[in-house]
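Preliminary data (for renewal application), adenosine monophosphate complex.
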Amino acid sequence: MLNVLFKYLLTFVFIGFLGIRFAAANEDAIVIMIGVDGLRADTLERMPAPSLQALANTGVRANMIPAMPTKTFVNFYSLATGLHPKHHGFISNYPYDRQLSRKFNRQTDVSDPKWWGGEPIWITAEKQGIKTATYFWVGSEVEIDGVRPSFWKPYQQDKDYSARVEEVLGWLALPEKQSPRLVTLYFSAVDTASHTYGVGSSQERAAVAKVDKHIGDLLAGLNKLGLSEQTNIVVVADHGMANLSDQRVINIDSWLDLSAFVIPDWSDEKNSVHAPFLNLYAQPQVVDAAYQKLYKAHPNMRVLRRGDFPTNYHFDHPQREPDLMLLADSGWSIYASRDKSRPQPMLQLGRSIATHGYDNQDPLMHATFIANGPAFEKEMMAKPFDNIEVYGLLACALNIKPAKTDGNVERVQYFMAKDCRPSADH
Ligand code: AMP
Ligand code: ZN
Ligand code: ZN
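Predicted structure:
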């Protein structure tokens, strides 16, 4: 009898010990989210990237579906907040706001809270007493509810990549009380190379190799610091990329005079534009007339009116939704010129030869997702999922209570080695 009691006692102590260990591991968990701009979902199939491949092989990998339109600010901010663009406000890289009667300005508005809705994951974490550090991320330069990341930086595209990794490792090497448990890191090189030289170019390969090398250096540095076991690495892209062709140009000059419209994404209005989509803002009569002219104008261009956007677009923000959206099929460009006497063929412009911004259901627009670490399952190819779920995964890995989002962690619970459901103890 005593023997049996003793065994029970031992089992009890052992389970208790495991519980304490698990809780301790949770409290120590570090999350590093790495944003690789334009890293298309199929990149690992197309070229070598040994560090990313190793993370994918032993962790969770999926094709991630971006938010609409498939642009940088829209998507990095959906990743950070778990919100659809209609709820966070970035319905394009340059949203136009009807109430303010102007478009977003990258110089002055990056730190103005009125443009930035929702609660990025670093704000949620800081509110719960967890230190965070953002080495660049869309939305990380703004104070939200009076809170900022403990460490953050104004965006600097040309900042040396080794310096970024060194500084992140420096933050993680700080004494425990000062050291961040959530870190973001961002690289733009793959997007830039793909725009300029195309998907499949040697320059795209070189950019992927470069980013991969720096991620490898980060992993080696974590190992040196003895932090590998407790660190979750989450690699995300904002969108994919499609090659363009001068055989796939939709010239709208003959159908439409654009002078009556506000077109916030057209940065240099004196020049022509080649765009995957145009968001147009104007008075109702102007919009109606344009719609009638355009809606059957070209088989590779969709013409969508305010109120009629497909339900899975989720960018019908009350003040910012466009009155009219012209959306080309992937690989097509909508061309418009201010000076109609001087139409310019696209490939002679020396601008992008690949781009993104197309329909988010097109696999060419899908983004890479890789997650690896103690919070995540091992060796899993998961199903495609919407990027608004990433916030919930990060909150779960950090063991913090998430803010309300458009995501539902139940949909991605199977990615995780721990229980993320709201009833689980956070
Ligand atoms: P896109 O026009 O959608 O291709 O945007 C890509 C560009 O966004 C990159 O070349 C980056 O330099 C820029 N970018 C990325 N993150 C930020 C940021 N936090 N602040 C300003 N610009 C950014
Ligand atoms: Zn991008
Ligand atoms: Zn881009």
